[in-house]
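ok trying this again, last paste got cut off
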Amino acid sequence: MATAGALQGPYRPELDGIRAICIIFTVAEHLPGKPWMINGSVGVDVFFALSGWLITWLLIHDRNENRQSKLVSYYIRRAFRILPLYVLTIIFYGLAATALWTMTGDPTEFNNFWTGFPYFATFNTEYMHMEDGTLFGHAWTLGIEEKFYIIWPFIMIFLFDVRAIGIAAAVAALLLLISIGPNTDLLIRGYAGLSFGAGLAVAASGSKGLGAVLEYRAVAYLALVGIVAAYICSLAFPHRYLWNVCISFSAAGLVGSLWLQQGRTHLARALSVRPLAGLGRLTYAIYLIHVLVMNVILLVLDRLNIAMPWLVAFALCYAASIVASFVLHRVVEVPLIEIGRGVARRYVQRRPAQQQQALRQQN
C-alpha cells in the first residue's frame, strides 16, 4: 500500500485523495455483512497502479546520476518507510491473538496467527494458503509490493540502458513470481496493476506525445469512467480477477493524467481537499491496523449484546481505525520516515567524497 515518501519529489495531494477513497472500500470489504453493491476488493487494485506509476516516475526523474547511490538511497527510504510500522503491527496482531485465547479459552486465532507468521514476517503472505493466517491475511498486497520495490528499481537503474534486456528481465521476474504461488488470481491482480502504472510511467517519460495526451483533462475523466464501469461489471458479472485488472488499467491512466496535469483540473482540486488528502496520508497505517481494530470492536459489541446496522458498524470501525492510525502515523511513521531521509541523504553526500578519495589514492 504505497504512499508518498519512497523518494523525495513533488507532493501531489490528489494522489492522497485517491488513497483516502480506496481505503474506505478496503475497510468496508473486511467488515462482515457488507451490502451487495460494495466490492471493496477493488480498492487495492487502484493502489497497485498508483504505486507502479509513482515509484517509477520518481526513479526516472531522480537527478542523482550515481546509480549505486540512487539505488541504495531508495532502499534506505523504503526500509524506514515500510518496516517499522509493519513489524509493530505484526506484534499487535500477535498480542491480540494471545489475549483472545486467554479471554475465551479458544486458541483458534492464536494458532491461526502463528501458522501465518513465517509468511507475515518475510513479506510472503501472497504465497500463503488464504485459509491460514487470516487475521493478518490482507498483508498479501504488501508482499507483492515489497517484491516490486526491491526488484523493479534494480532493473530500471542497472538494466534499462538496453531496453530489451530490461524488459526481458522484468517479464522473467513477473512470470517467476506469479508461477510459484497458490493464489494466482491475487498475484495476477497485483503484478498487472503495478506493471500498468510502471509501464505507463516509462512510456510517458520517453514519449512527449504520450505525455501530451495524458495532460488532456478529458483523459483523467475517461479513466475515471473506466474505473466506474469495471466496478459495475464486477458486481454484475463477478470474476476472480478480470475486473480488478481492468480497474488497475484505468487507474494507471487516471494517476498518470492527474500527475502530469499538476493539479490544474477540477477533479484534482476535488481530490486535494485538505480533509481527504489528510486521510490519504494515513492509509498505510489504516491498512495495517484496521482488521485488528475491527475485530476488537466487533468482539466488544458481541459481548455487550449490541446489534448495529452494517453502516453504523462500518462508521464506528472506520472512525476507530483513523484514530489508531493517526497515533501510529505521528508516533512511529513520520519520525522514522524523517530518520530514513536523513540516513539516505548522508549516504548520498558521503559517496562522492569516498569516490574522490579513492581516485586520489589511485593516482
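PB: full thing came through this time. The chain is about 80% helix and 0% strand.
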